[in-house]
Amino acid sequence: MKNLFSLRLVFTLAVPTISAVVSPIAASANVTNDCIVENPEFLRANYKIETNDSAGNVKETSLILWRKGKEVAHQYPQTGITEAWQLIKGNRLKPIRFFDHFERAIEYQPGETVHGKRETDWSNRYQLISDSVLSKMTNYGQESTIASECKLAQKVAHIGDTTLTLNWLTNQKLIKQFHIKKGNQSVVWTLESVESDVDKINAFFETRHNYYVTDFADIGDDHTDPFLTQMVTQGFIEHGASGFYNDKGETIGHHNH
Q1: C-beta neighbour count of 86 within 10 angstroms
Q2: Separation CA 184–CA 182 (nearest Å)
Q3: Domain coordinates of the chain in residue numbers?
Q4: What is the pLDDT of residues 229-249, one digit of tens each?
Q5: Annotation: CATH topology of 7-234
Q6: Structure pTM?
Q7: Highest mean pLDDT among 3-12, 107-116, 174-183
Q8: CA distance 112 to 91
Q9: Could you tell me whether strands 212-215 and 104-107 are parallel, antiparallel, or unpaired per DSSP bridges?
Q10: In this structure, what DSSP letter does residue 114 have?
Q11: Mind listing the pLDDT tens digit for each residue in 8-31?
């Protein structure tokens, strides 16, 4: 979403001022199904992402959030790419990028700079919105208790000329619905389903960890690997300055998911 705004910036920005929104998103009545998760640290959450640009064009993509303890992944079915992060000793993040169509992976070292930024915010990866932003959002209305393990909080905030409206599943640390609006441009995230089949989750990560792995630092040393050559040519990998790309496979300066 090059012509919208940096959602990563929105998610991680320290919010200076917050005020209420006139027309927040209505709470969904179908929350219970999203709360049937035995352990929120092991789940698969399917999201629909609808983008409306200033020209009135609407695009719809999807993202699948996978959690397995101290490893989390963002899977993008449209591109066949999965981005994952491991939380390791010292609360450091180790990024790994999986190219599912090729069964290849690029591994980064903890603290390695990616597009000039080090990966440090586990909460932003784990729950798609950082704790720092959540703490600065204002609750409106009372928290709804749908079931013993299901609580829905509604939050709002203004960041400059951008309005954030969030339906938040507190116990699961999941976005139920998230509306980001700036002028006549907007992005709406909607949680469509959640499941917690441990066998499926283990299989998902095990499959990807069996891919052929290349260390990011070694990419420039191998000019004979057709896969690496293709990825570098297409901009998915940049030796020495590799960064993330959006859900359309476009390279971007920030992680705009």
Answers
A1: 19
A2: 6
A3: 7-234
A4: 666 655 555 433 223 333 343
A5: outer membrane lipoprotein receptor (LolB), chain A (2.50.20)
A6: 0.78
A7: 174-183
A8: 14
A9: parallel
A10: B
A11: 434 433 333 333 333 344 444 334
